[in-house]
Amino acid sequence: MKKSELKSGMVLETRNGRRYVIYMDVDVAARTGGMGWMRISQWNEDLTSSGRDYDVVAAYRPKYEYRYGSTAPLHLTKVWTRESEIKITVEVNGERVPLSTLSDETIQKIKEQE
User: Fold this and answer.
1) Which of 11, 24, 64, 83 is deepest in the core (most CB within 10 A)?
2) Cα separation of 80 and 104, whole Å?
């Protein structure tokens, strides 16, 4: 999915697990279930950002309009998932996990342990 394909009301999920409702007319992505927001213009056309934790990994269309302050939009239909180009795994706590699912903070901790 590309940024130019986004529509107001869609919900985006970032690599760090946070979800944002898109408001295209005001260039805002408002965080669901909590305080916070981002500028849509901060994402590149491929929905990556300068901070890996904020890369978009999934996009949803809600069945119902999101009401600000609710815990999370219900009845979401996933319309896109980021596919990693290369499947790299690392060992974390004795378990192999995809590198693409780890936050910048976790990756830094792994580097420090080496």
Assistant:
1) 11
2) 23
